[in-house]
Amino acid sequence: MVLGTGAAILYFKNLETVPYTNRTRFILRSKSFEREFGQSQMELLKLERIEAEAEYIGMLLMASAGYDPHVAIRMNEQQWVNKGKPELEDPLSTHPSEKRMAQILSQDHVMEEALSMYREALLSQKKESPVWIFRLLQLF
Q1: Signal peptide: which range, if any (predicted)?
Q2: Does a structural domain hold residue 34?
Q3: Residue 15 resides in a domain
Q4: Spatial separation of the C-alpha atoms in residues 117 and 34, rounded to whole Å
Q5: How many domains does the chain fold into?
């Protein structure tokens, strides 16, 4: 059977193998679909970056209020363990995985900034707080 070159190229360009069955199937995609799909993937990456930035700002606010920034990392790691330690991230998720967030927040420059804010907050609390609060803080 002889196919026109345009049809043959279109057919072989749009072959896709299904991961679980290893069967080959024909996928017909238009250029507008590919453009919209690419834009949606870029939007998901942008939203993921925004969520990571929000987590970072939240950790800095927590540290400036006098809470240990290491807690944010431990919380993300614990959530990852509670979810069953998934190996793959959800490709359609707008949030980084908990494991990825723990890696982002535990970077040296991020932790140094948070720890300096934490130390400043502890010093200011010691100056302003009554004696019983100071003793309570020493327990932790």
Answers
A1: none
A2: no
A3: no
A4: 46
A5: 1
Going residue by residue through the chain, which has 140 residues, state the pLDDT in tens, using 9 for 90 and above.
444 444 444 445 555 665 666 665 556 566 777 778 778 888 888 888 999 899 999 999 989 888 999 988 888 888 888 888 777 777 777 788 888 888 899 999 999 999 999 999 888 877 665 544 555 556 55
Q: For residues 102 and 74, what is the distance between their CA atoms, to the nearest angstrom?
A: 8
Q: Of 111, 118, 108, 79, nearest to 95 (Cα)?
A: 79
| 58 within a domain of the structure (yes/no) | yes
Between the CA of residue 94 and those of 46, 47, 50, 91, what are the distances in Å?
8, 5, 9, 9
Domain containing 109 equals 43-139
**70 occurs within a structural domain:** yes
Sort residue 18 into left (φ over 0), alpha (ψ -120 to 50) or beta: beta
Global confidence as pTM: 0.61
